[in-house]
Amino acid sequence: CLDDLEADRGAAVRGAYLDGDSYAELAQRFNVPLNTMRTWLRRGLMALRECMSV
């Protein structure tokens, strides 16, 4: 299901939840505001939940 996410969103989810990167580190790496990164991660988790429940 991670591969179904957009490439940058999938990389952010992997970074946050598998590699232990902070939201601030990810926001800086992807050159987006912190709140945008939080949104990416929240929506990414929602998409993963939906994908895995099918």
What keywords describe this structure?
Arc Repressor Mutant, subunit A, mainly alpha, 69% helix, 54 residues, 3 helices, 0% strand, single chain
Report on this model:
With 54 residues, the protein is mostly helical. The protein has three helices and no strands. The protein has one domain: Orthogonal Bundle (Arc Repressor Mutant, subunit A), CATH 1.10.10. It has helices at residues 7-17, 23-29, 34-52. Helix 2 crosses helix 3. The longest helix has 19 residues, at 34-52. The radius of gyration is 11 Å and the shape is elongated. The termini are close together.
Shape annotation: elongated
Query: How confident overall, as mean pLDDT?
Result: 95
What is the CATH superfamily label?
A: Winged helix-like DNA-binding domain superfamily/Winged helix DNA-binding domain
Q: Summarize the amount of helix as a percent range.
A: 55-70%
- The CATH topology annotation reads as Arc Repressor Mutant, subunit A
CATH class value: Mainly Alpha
- Strand fraction equals under 5%
Contiguous low-pLDDT stretches (5 residues minimum) are: none
Biggest sheet architecture: none
Distance between the termini: 11 Å
- What is the radius of gyration? 11 Å
Succession of helices and strands = HHH
